[in-house]
Structure formats: C-alpha cells, structure tokens
Amino acid sequence: MATLPNPLPSLASRGLDLPSGSLVDTTIDGPWHEPLFWYGNTAAAPGDFAALRATGRPVGLLPVLIDEGPRREPPSAWSLDPANVSYPGDHDAEEVLLDFWEPYAADELGDGAGESDGERHGASDSESGGASGRAPEWPGLAPSPATKGPDEPDQLAADLADMFSSAHLDDQGAGLRPALVPARRSADIPAALGWTGPVNHESDVARLCAVLRSWEDRFDIRVVVLGFDTLTVSVGRPPTTLAEANALAAEHFAFCPDTIDQNPPYDLAAYAEKSVLNRESWSFWWD
C-alpha cells in the first residue's frame, strides 16, 4: 500500500508522550518489515483517544480503539495480512459497492424478500426485484446530507471513543486498547493494519477503505473501533431524512451484507430507519 514514510520505527526518538505500549509487526506470514502500529499495554480510558490524536497526528499517526473480544485475542492473533492490501486511492467507491450489490442484492433482496419490501414501500417489481430473483436496481451513491451534524467530526469520534471505553471496561481493568496507526486519513486505518476482518466478503480491505473514504467525504465518518471482524465508525454528518437513510442503507448492505441479513428484522428499509437515520455511529460485522 502506498503510504507516507512510517514514523513508527523512529517513535522512541520523537519524544512523544505516550502511555506504556509496544510496537506490533506480527502478520499471518511472520514479522512485517516495519511496525504496523503502536499498541497500548492497558485499557483505554476516557480522554485517551483525543490525547493520542493530538500527539500522533502531527507525525502521521491516527488513533483507533482495538476490541480484543470476549476471548481477549490481541491483533497479533488476527491474521493481519498487509502484503495483500492495495492502496485505497486506487479504487472507486461506487464501483466497489456495485460489485457487491449485484450478487448479494439478487440473493437477499430479490425473490420473496424483495417483493414484500417493494409492496410495503410502493415499488414496482422492476424496482424491488420482484419475484424474479433479479437484483433491485443499484440506486447510486447517497448524497451528502443537507444538514451538518451538531458536533465537529473529530470531537464526536473522541466523545464516542470515551463512551465505548467506559462501557467496555470490566472489573479486572480490561477493555478496549488504544492503538496508533500510520495512516493519511482515518478511513485508511484498516488497510494500514492489513486487517482481514471482512475476508469472507472481500480479501483486499483497501477496497472497503475506498468506501470508507467516500463516507468520510460525504458523512464525516471516523474509524473508532476495530475488532477481529467488527468495525465501528462515528458519523459527523448522519442522514436526517428517511429518503437519505434509505439511499445510504443500500451502500451499507453492499459494504457488509451480514449487518442486515443476519440481524433482525432482516429488512433494508427497517435497517435504514433504525440504524442509519440520525445515527452518530455505524457498526458492521462480517461472518
């Protein structure tokens, strides 16, 4: 992946005020030729995310919280694979989404499911997929909402990081761990890590990062939490009308079908209203 020079190898000489932590270079194929990220030794506390951003951003490092899950599996056990990651800027977000929309929407939104959705919202068979099994027509990229969110995007990300940090902290002091990643922009963090969480959906996470870049531009998202196969982003400019939410829900489905078709009520319109409309965070999970 094409990146700016990695500041991690010279981290000790930069005099950054960081908590106790270590540099991680473990990948599925053995040690990487340079560190992939700095990883805190203890759970993140409220305020850590903002402090790490202020410290790291001037030297090309961005923060993310790492969710080790109930089995406390650190990222070194996640089969990170930076060797098979391309550059997010080489991909077009709409082309990536369309590549996924056509096969997945035909399977999940066509036939009976598509027909009932179409009847419920007044769409014709050709619009909804009907009973033919054809994919509903790709609606195109959702427009950026007309109304800005109430919070500055980076501040919202920090506020949500504080909330998540507090919610995940257990009686033993374990919780989300802070990390600093060499990345130009927040949307590139999964690619910079060589993250393989969506591998059953897409083996080159840079393609999904191209979508995250587009969402960063249109919806002011920031990557806040990464787990083994989960991703949570803050949303500084969420959809504020049902029409905006419905348009964006189609992108979410193409980006991560499991978020809709493996979670009740298994319905795209209901998902748009419940999980997209006015929501300041989006969460995704790949099976």
Structural account:
This protein is an alpha+beta fold. Helix content is 36%, strand content 15%. The protein contains 10 helices and 9 strands. It has helices spanning 48-56, 93-108, 111-121, 125-128, 153-168, 189-193, 205-219, 242-255, 258-261, 268-276, and strands at 21-24, 26-27, 30-31, 37-40, 61-67, 177-182, 221-227, 230-235, 281-285. Strands 1-4-6-5-7-8-9 form a 7-stranded mixed sheet, with helices on both faces. A two-stranded antiparallel sheet has the order 2-3. A hairpin with a 2-residue loop joins strand 2 (26-27) and strand 3.
List the SSEs and their pairings:
Layout: E1 21-24, E2 26-27, E3 30-31, E4 37-40, H1 48-56, E5 61-67, H2 93-108, H3 111-121, H4 125-128, H5 153-168, E6 177-182, H6 189-193, H7 205-219, E7 221-227, E8 230-235, H8 242-255, H9 258-261, H10 268-276, E9 281-285
Parallel strand pairs: 5-7
Antiparallel strand pairs: 1-4, 2-3, 4-6, 5-6, 7-8, 8-9
Helix pairs in contact: 2-7, 2-8, 8-10
Features:
287 residues, alpha+beta, 7-stranded mixed β-sheet, two-stranded antiparallel sheet, 9 strands, globular
